[in-house]
Amino acid sequence: MRRKWTKEEIKDYRELHGSLFYFNTEDSNFFIPKAYGYGWTMNWANPISWIIVALVIIMIVVRKFR
Fold first, then answer.
1. What is the dihedral of CA 50, 52, 58, 60, to 10 degrees?
2. What is the dihedral of CA 1, 49, 16, 34, to 10 degrees?
3. Boundaries of every domain in the chain
4. Alpha-carbon Rg of the chain, whole angstroms?
5. How many CA atoms lie within 13 A of 48 on its CB side?
6. How confident is the model at residue 62, as a pLDDT?
7. What is the pLDDT of residue 55?
8. E strand or H helix at 24
9. pTM of the complete model
10. 53: helix, strand or coil
11. Per-residue H/E/C for 2-46
12. What is the DSSP secondary structure assignment for residue 19, as one 8-state letter?
């Protein structure tokens, strides 16, 4: 069962996997704190992240060709 991970669990996951992108199928968060610096990034294993990216691309295309 998927659940929201804590900041400590996310940090441990990143240290263990060391990936550029956060892709954790067990974590239900779609926005997570960045590994370095300030801000947020997406959990690319969460379908909501892909929907957000698709909507942004659609908005850009619609504005460009309007």
1. -120
2. -130
3. 7-64
4. 14
5. 10
6. 96
7. 98
8. none
9. 0.70
10. helix
11. CECCCHHHHHHHHHHHCCCCECCCCECCCEEECCCCCCEEEECCC
12. -
Token pair belonging to 61: 């295309």
Please write the tens of the pLDDT for every residue from 18-53.
777 888 888 888 888 887 788 888 989 999 999 999
Do residues 10 and 27 make contact, with C-beta atoms less than 8 angstroms apart? yes
Q: Round to whole Å and give the CA distance between 62 and 42.
A: 24
Residue 34 C-beta-side C-alpha neighbours within 13 Å:
6
Q: Which two tokens stand for residue 43?
A: 């959990």
Alpha carbons 32 and 34: distance in angstroms, whole number: 6
Distance CA 12, CA 15 (A): 5
Strand positions, DSSP E, 1-66: 31-33, 40-42
